[in-house]
Amino acid sequence: MKRRHLLQLLAGVPTATALAACGKRKASATALKPDARVLALGDSLTFGYGASPDAAWPVKLGALTGWQVENAGINGDTSAGALERLPAQLSASSYDAILIGIGGNDMLRGVSPAATRSNLTALVAQARAHTSHVALLATPAPDAMRAAIGSLSDAPVYEEVAKSGQALLVANVYSSVLSDASLRSDRIHANARGYEKVAQQLADQLKAAGWR
Hints:
Structural class: alpha/beta
Shape: globular
Oligomer: single chain
Low-confidence stretches: 1-29
Order of helices and strands: HHEHHEHEHHEHHEHH
């Protein structure tokens, strides 16, 4: 938006309204094409551990959106592992959007938070060099007691990395699903209904962000 037009907007309407107008224009401009190729990079939660392959959230997200969502989730993978395999993935194919959901195993294995943050930052940077449509799916900090009472919350590192790397933060999706015992196959994985919930919440947030 040109500076003169922005000043006119701010002079003639309330600030919140002007910002909303700008946000809507930006959202419309960044919508993905209906058959977009999307890479889902992650660990067992992306793979769909605890359910059949056709119940994994990348499959369900593709059905909801019409996008071609490639499931690049690997059981047990860490942020370091994802960082090691992403360059080959990007050199082999072209993607319109990249969804990154990794780091849960880092926390379970006691990887230093600084190392995880560094790896996530590098993953976002590599993805952003490939496409402007990059989203970071926040993973909850492992906490058996909070899981038992249905009160998991996202690890703060995801918001920090998304903000610094100019990626879209997908917040409170894994946390909300894994907080519900009826949507889990075990204490850290979803079941088929859970992955369906993940896909729907993810689709809703991406739509709100203007990707659809």
